[in-house]
Structure formats: structure tokens, C-alpha cells
Amino acid sequence: MTEASMVIVGGGKAGARAAVAFRENSWKGPVTLISDEALAPYDRPPLSKAAIMEEAEPQPVYLLDEGMMASLEVNFLRGVAATAIDRNAKTLSLADGKNISYDRLLIATGAEPRRLSQAGAERALLLRDLADSAKIRSEFISGKSVAIIGGGFIGLELAASAAKRGCHVTVIEAQPRVLMRGVPPDIAARIAARHAEADVAILTSASIAEIGSDRILLSDGREVPADIVIAGIGAAPRIKLAEEAGLALDNGIACNTYLQTSDSYIFAVGDCCSFPHPVFGNERLRLEAWRNASDQAIVAVENMLGGQKPYEAVPWFWTDQYELNLQIAGLPQQGVSIVQRVPKEGALILCHLDAEGRLVGASGIGQGNSIARDIRLLEMLIGKKAAPDPALLADPAFQLKSLLKP
Amino acid sequence: MGQWIEVCAAGDIDAEDVMRFDHGGQTFAIYRSPDDEFYATDGLCTHEKVHLADGLVMDNIIECPKHNGRFDYRNGAAMGAPACVNLKTYPVKVEAGKVLIDTGA
């Protein structure tokens, strides 16, 4: 009998965290990490920010380097895609012709940027990996015009980075405002105002007719100068491997609360999967977020080793633009009323309460890490399904921490 | 051993809280535990150099505000990924209502 083997497909944040988690859980058997990228797992949040803005040529920020993988005895297969799963034989086929047996398989294939369909779309740069980031950086030359299609997190982070490098930036957003998905209007308005201060033009309710060689033509006849075009219009879960293996799908690879797919030997984590969230009435969510990738990896690994741990971490996102930090915890869109909290001058936190007065979301914006502590406490209160007194939430002198004490 | 440097009045830090203290080109985090002891560590997270004083103190743990790396501020011990490298700690004492730190400088 061969030794039971744990196999991870995907060398991003989730896959890397899972590899470590097996050893943290005292798993002594083989762990194999398969990545279709040439590099060891590296951190992606800097790719739209520091890696583009900093003077020095960007270097990957490794999550797991060679030395760590050696000491953890992780068998790392780089630059090779997993092409098929044979669920009966419990083997995984790789693009280089190898087959790998698994006892439990973790799919952490992430998401990939959606592409534009308009004429000229092939000119639009996309951002997913380090090479994409390096390419964008090399194009952001002072004085060039940059048109960014999509006013979401990636589009706006790249807009701030382009402005920092002296480009003339226009953001083209189809919706009536930026950050329409999941960010409340008051918070989004502050981000938009900060971009205006940096001379970044934001065009909302704008649709694209055609992407030309040096400009973008909008449906209403306006023209946007565009030496460089970038599309940041969302991401689609990478599900091909799961789909061809016949695993259940539902906006990504469908998992149960244990992050187990429809095949009990196969688990999925990170941007590629959806799961029911017990804190939010088991609403099925798919999250594209750094911390979710990490937290899910920890829970899935425990369950792959025989645990029965539901995934119930409260969703949490952040973005850094200019000197501002925006954070969202929970699901603000589930709220029906908002309580404002101003922890310090220039910072704004919104507490989102549902019809029963339960805290379901918190969103905030401020300089540096000025909102981090309060958002973290609100996140914990959301996880406890707390219904705090709105008057206390609104009082900046009130210590939120005291609500967590028994 | 270096010399003792005055940080603040003991009452300036709440129990189970942290404050930033900059001195001699270095930045420190000064903690007051729930049982009223004072501690000091390097001010920046060993993971990505974020100021820990913006983070959350729960019991004897400081959590980094950026990536939730956690440390036991009493001895600087990193509590697991992404915090893998321990924080350096410094001697602290309270005299005549003042918090003093020995930065070793």
C-alpha cells in the first residue's frame, strides 16, 4: 500500500497556505503543490500597487520560497498545468504527461481576468500575474495617456499607480458610480474624490463602442485618449479542470460548508469556489480576496485530514489607493440601515445593520491604518451575529472591544 | 544595557491597549496588558513592516492591522503565518507613574 498523498493544484495564496497548513496540522505524509506558473508562490496584492509605483524594479514577494518548501518537505512542481482528474483512479494528469495519485485533492486554481469583447479588445492589457504587472509598469511612462476600463478595485488601484507615475489617466465605468459591487456610495464617493484630486478622470455610465489605436470611442460619441488600455472588468473562476471532471458548479466550484466539492475526496478553496456562509443565512458566496484564500486553505486542510470544521470566517477585503485605505467586512449589501462612526478626523466607518438590528457589514475609509482596528472589531461582532446599540456604534469614544467581552 | 528612556505616563495607555513610541530613529510598540503589566516590542510587524500600534490587542496578543499576523507581546513570539519571525522585545518598567523603556542603545 502506498502512503496517502495530499495534492494541491494552484500556486497562489490559497495553495501556498494550504501546503504550510498540512505541516502545521502535523501531517507527515507527502504534500505536492502544482503550479502552472514558473515562480514559487508569491503575493499578488502588490502587483497593482507597490510593484508598479516603486522606483526599484519589482521583485516577487514570495509566500513560500525554495528554502521553506525544502524545510516543509513540499514537493513543488512548477510551470506545469493540471489537465485532468480521474476521480475513479484518484489520479491527476499533468500537461507534461505525468500522473499523480492523490488521497485528497485540493483545487485552488483562482480566477482569471474577464476579457472585453469590443472591437480592438486585443489591445487591452490584463493583470493577473507578475509578468502582467511588469508589462503594465513598463508602459506607464510619464506623459502617456492611460485608459482603464472598469472602476472596481483593480481598475482604481491601477489608476492611482498610473497617476503616481505621471500618466494622464481616465477610468471608464459602465455603472453609475465606481465600486458599485459591495462598496457603499458614501465610501465610493470619497475614493472618487481622491482620484479627482490626482487628476484622474472618472467617466461613469459610459459604454465602449470601439478601442482604437490611440483612443477609445464611447457609445455617446466621446473619445478618450488611450496610449495604453487596461481592462479591469472582473474575474471569472478557473473551473475547467473541475468542470471536465464532472464536479458540481455554482458560480465557481460548488463546495459545502466544509469546502468539500461534490466529490468527497476533492476540496476547493479561494477565488475558484463558492460556498454557503452560515453567518449570512447560508447565502452562497464566491469571494476574490486575499484573506479568504488564506482562511479557507486552513479550514479545508483540517477537513482533508478528517476534520469537520465549517468555514465561517467573515468576508474581509481591503484596497489601498494613494494614502487611503478602504476596508469592507461582512456583507454591507445585506444591511438596511447605516450607523456612521468617525473614529478620528478624516476617517469614516459605516456600520450596516439588517432589519433586526443585527450587524451584517462594516465599511470604512481613512488614511493609513486609521480604520483597521475598528473594522477588525466590527468584523468580530459580525461573526458573533451581534446586534449592538446603534448609539454606542456611533460614539467614537466608545471602545468597541467592550462589546466582545462576556 | 542602555539607559532608561521615558515613554509616557502610565495612565496614557489603557489596559489591553498599545501605543506607538518613536525614539532615536527606531519605532516601538508599548503595551499595557489586561493585568496591568507593561511591555515593549519593535514597532513594526516582522512580516511586512506595518506599525503594530494600529493593531488590536486581545489579552496578551497583538494582531497586525494589515495581515492579521499575531504575536505574544510579552515575549515577542510569532503565533503562526503570516507572522513567522519573532518580535524583538525590550525591558520596560514603571517608576513614579512614568513608563520607561530600555532600548539597549
Task: Please provide a brief summary of the model.
The complex is a heterodimer of chains A (406) and B (105). Chain A has helices at 13-24, 50-53, 66-71, 130-139, 153-164, 185-197, 240-244, 290-304, 372-383, 390-394; strands spanning 6-9, 31-34, 74-77, 82-86, 91-94, 99-101, 104-107, 111-113, 145-149, 168-172, 201-203, 208-211, 215-218, 223-225, 228-231, 235-237, 253-254, 266-268, 273-277, 283-285, 316-321, 324-330, 337-341, 348-353, 359-367.
Describe the 3D structure.
The complex is a heterodimer of chains A (406) and B (105). Chain A has three domains: 6-37 and 60-112 and 235-304, FAD/NAD(P)-binding domain; 115-231, FAD/NAD(P)-binding domain (3-Layer(bba) Sandwich), CATH 3.50.50.60; 323-404, Enolase-like, domain 1 (2-Layer Sandwich). In chain A, strands 3-2-1-7-18 form a five-stranded parallel sheet. Helices cover 23% and strands 27% of the residues of chain A. With 406 residues, chain A is of the alpha/beta class. The mean pLDDT of chain A is 96. The longest helix of chain A is centred in the C-terminal third of the chain and has 15 residues, at 290-304. Chain A has helices at residues 13-24, 50-53, 66-71, 130-139, 153-164, 185-197, 240-244, 290-304, 372-383, 390-394, and strands spanning 6-9, 31-34, 74-77, 82-86, 91-94, 99-101, 104-107, 111-113, 145-149, 168-172, 201-203, 208-211, 215-218, 223-225, 228-231, 235-237, 253-254, 266-268, 273-277, 283-285, 316-321, 324-330, 337-341, 348-353, 359-367. Chain A starts with 5 loop residues before the first strand and ends in a 12-residue tail after the last helix. Chain B is an all-beta fold. Chain B contains no helices and eleven strands. Helices cover 0% and strands 45% of the residues of chain B. In chain B, a hairpin with a 5-residue loop joins strand 3 (26-32) and strand 4 (38-42). In chain B, the strands form three sheets. In chain B, strands 2-3-4-9 form a four-stranded antiparallel sheet, with no helix packed on it. A four-stranded antiparallel sheet of chain B has the order 5-6-7-8, with no helix packed on it. Chain B has a single domain, classed as Rieske [2Fe-2S] iron-sulphur domain (Rieske Iron-sulfur Protein). The interface between A and B is medium-sized, with 14 and 16 residues.
